[in-house]
Amino acid sequence: MFRYLTKSILLLALTIVICCVIYPLAVWGIGQVFFPFQANGSLLKGPDGSVVGSKLIAQPFTKDEYFQPRPSAASYDASASASSTYAASNYLLRNRVATALGPIVKYQRGPKAGQLVAPDIEAWFQQDKYAGNPHLVAQWADLHNAVALAWVNADPTHAQYIDAWAKAHPDVVAQWVKNNPSTPQPKTTDLAVVFFENFSQDHPGMFPSAVTQAGADGKAQTSIQPVKDGTDVQGNFFDMWRQEHPDADLQEVPADLVTASGSGLDPHITLQNAEFQLDRVASKWADDTKRDGAEVRKEIDQLLQSNASAAFAGLAGEKFVNVLEVNLELCQRYGVPK
């Protein structure tokens, strides 16, 4: 009995040493010697030498000088990798795609071929009518409660704006509580729809959006204000505009420009997607560097082509570019944008 117990303990100890010490050390050593870049997270450094991210994980870019990655249901958080799980019938999915399309989609044919649809969306929005009825923003909130609620949760300043509105409109809030007695102390999310209904009456043809202005101290300050144009108007109301203009012939856009990956962290975009964004990126860099736009565009297009690759050494599938790598090369070539 003791002999068997001793052998079992020795076998257990040997297994622990091999599996928990020798094997991990061997794998770590091989990785550090032969694959140090991959073994340490595939980390990339910026122009100043500091680590800016991993080439394996997408991160958001908002400045026009940069190519932008695919949308992310995980907000590009590597610890929360996930898809949205929205069904095709979920209006939040349709709204997310429409929000991305509104500022960038162009006419395919006709007298406005090649021009952005955005100015026409803004002009239509300012008429403040949908399906022949007034108060467009109120109809938007009534038709799509989930989207109105998502707007409140999208940024802390949105909730603060509604909170300030609620304090300035106690009679409206009191009427809402009377109509909803089960919620005597409504939160900002509870008041989302009634807020937009009231806002639409007080500010016809306008939408609450972030506006950045110089404060008294000269520093930039951002606050929510009624606006009649801008990307929020173009994006949030593109779908309703499209429903009222079904015959408008619009250009198609790359699918990965408006659809998220399963993980929400895909670091690559298709070359077609990158080329769709090329005019915006090149135009902004040309303005920043005071150079000829056509020349800058040619340089960046060559950069994309040199960085593009397909699976199996180019033998199969679409060509892709790594967004972080390309944006870092832009910074190295033209400097860091202000």
For the sheet with most strands, the description reads: 2 strands, antiparallel
Q: Walk across the major sheet and give the strand order.
A: 1-2
Sheet-strand content, in percent, reads: 5-15%
Report the strand count.
9
Summarize the structure in words:
By secondary structure, the protein is mostly helical. It folds into three domains: 2-39; 43-84 and 260-334, no CATH class; 91-253, no CATH class. It is 51% helix and 12% strand. It contains 15 helices and nine strands. It has helices at residues 2-34, 36-39, 91-101, 118-126, 136-143, 145-154, 156-168, 170-179, 192-202, 231-236, 238-244, 271-289, 293-307, 311-314, 323-334; strands at 43-45, 51-54, 129-130, 133-134, 207-214, 220-227, 268-270, 309-310, 316-322. A two-stranded antiparallel ribbon has the order 1-2. A hairpin with a 5-residue loop joins strand 1 (43-45) and strand 2 (51-54). Helix 5 (136-143) runs antiparallel to helix 9 (192-202), helix 6 (145-154) crosses helix 7 (156-168) and helix 12 packs antiparallel against helix 13 (293-307). The longest helix has 33 residues, at 2-34. It is globular and about 85 Å long. The relative contact order is 0.14.
In short:
With 338 residues, this protein is mainly α. The protein contains 15 helices and nine strands.
Sum up the structure in keywords.
two-stranded antiparallel ribbon, single chain, mainly alpha, 338 residues
Topology at a glance:
Elements: H1 2-34, H2 36-39, E1 43-45, E2 51-54, H3 91-101, H4 118-126, E3 129-130, E4 133-134, H5 136-143, H6 145-154, H7 156-168, H8 170-179, H9 192-202, E5 207-214, E6 220-227, H10 231-236, H11 238-244, E7 268-270, H12 271-289, H13 293-307, E8 309-310, H14 311-314, E9 316-322, H15 323-334
